[in-house]
Amino acid sequence: MPQLIEVITSGLSLGVVYALIALGFAVIFKATGVLNFAHGSLLLLGAYTVAEVAAKAGFVIGLVVGITVAAFAALVADRLVFRFVRGGDHVVLAMITLGLDIVLLARLVNLLGTRVLPIHDPWRDVVVSIGAVALPQTRIAAFVTASMLLAVFFAALRFSNWGVAMRATTQDREAAALMGIRPGLISASAWMIGGGLATVAGVFLSVFPTPGLETALSLTALKALPAAVLGGLDSLGGALVGGLTIGLAEALIAGYAQQLSFLGTGFADVMPYLVLFVVLLVRPTGMFGSRELTRV
């Protein structure tokens, strides 16, 4: 029983971190209709900046600078590239984000090399014991922080002027523009939010029990992509549900790896895509995605 509680707790903390990344995918897709394949390199850029700055100025300053750098990089991508091709074929735009990812990732790999950088977080490798259950402090901090960020985001989406403008733009871009809403500003804010959330997620994916920040971190965004698609790419709430589902599924497989050894090693890494495959067989638009209706 203690093992099950530990696995579920670990899965939930991992799931909310995946939800942050998935929310970045979803908010950009909802605002622009573009699937951002550069999200992984933005995540790595933010986390790398946090690690480098935190080593000299402390974790809090490093986190603020990392979020700012990733948000600014996302803004530059939106302003300098998508400004000239916005409104074009969404497949072409997605391919452009793939090109951005390759360029940015190549530069980051050159900077980081084979090093494994510590994040210099305040939780270190401290483990908290609650009865027979042992939990790393980093997992608790990840769950609390990610949950707070998700709550703030959804509250802003529901009650703020920005949230109203975002919802109006995603419903009908042309009508929103006629009402005085600036779709370009909404698009830029969506990209910046995605970059900032990815940085926070990257930090918590690089702390204990993982050894630290390394270039393979960018591939983690590919695990969050199934979470976003699973919930429905045009559903922000679905990103949260998808992230929790993927996190729990992966943690359960990893936690009971010995009992499931017949599945082979590394099956936990395959689990997100298997869950995605099964769900999409039943519901191609995801659990909460909008179904397209075609008049014939």
Automatic annotation (TrEMBL):
Transmembrane regions: 12-29, 57-78, 90-109, 140-164, 185-208, 228-253, 260-282
Superkingdom per UniProt: Bacteria
Subcellular location: Cell membrane
The entry's keywords: Amino-acid transport, Cell membrane, Membrane, Transmembrane, Transmembrane helix, Transport
InterPro entries: ABC_transp_permease, BCAA_transport_permease
Pfam families: BPD_transp_2
The keyword Membrane is assigned to this record: yes
Similarity section: Belongs to the binding-protein-dependent transport system permease family. LivHM subfamily.
Protein name in UniProt: Branched-chain amino acid ABC transporter permease
